[in-house]
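[Q] Does anyone have a clean structure-token version of this?
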Amino acid sequence: MSSADIPSPPSNQGLDTADPVDSIVCAGCSKQAFYEFLIFMLPIYYFVIVGLKRYLALSNDNTLYIGTTHQNSYHMKMKACKIMSGLYLIQFLLALVQSPETNWAAYYKGLSLLFILGIAAWILSLKLLVQEVAKGLPQDFGSQRIFWITHCVVACLRILTSLEVSFDRK
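[A] Here you go.
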């Protein structure tokens, strides 16, 4: 593939160019990439740091705590963690395999490596969940629960912004 065959990055066509984000976005990066790899990944960056800290603290603590385990929600949360890590894996593989014409993230192959952090965050969430339940601890709000809540909010915002962009281009 020659350099003439490589398409330019997705443009901000149809988006408000008076947005202050435009002054922050790096040259050659689209606003979509800025939102995807910085704003929408914030819960993942947060959880990789805070969740790993909690996981390591619990790994070094051999105390068993007396607590109740809600088996139904535990199994649902385990499945959700596995599904989310699988979705990030699919997103990462598609960015590597597809052409930039069909997948905008394929244009930013280097930045697409950040999807691996999404996979790691959800696997860490699963391992932390297993460890907390094994020790009889509730899920910590500052790590586990805040990650799930913020990731859900960000996923909804991601869907809304992608719908907004697609309607603006019609």
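[Q] Thanks! Anything notable?
[A] The CA atoms of residues 150 and 156 lie 10 Å apart.
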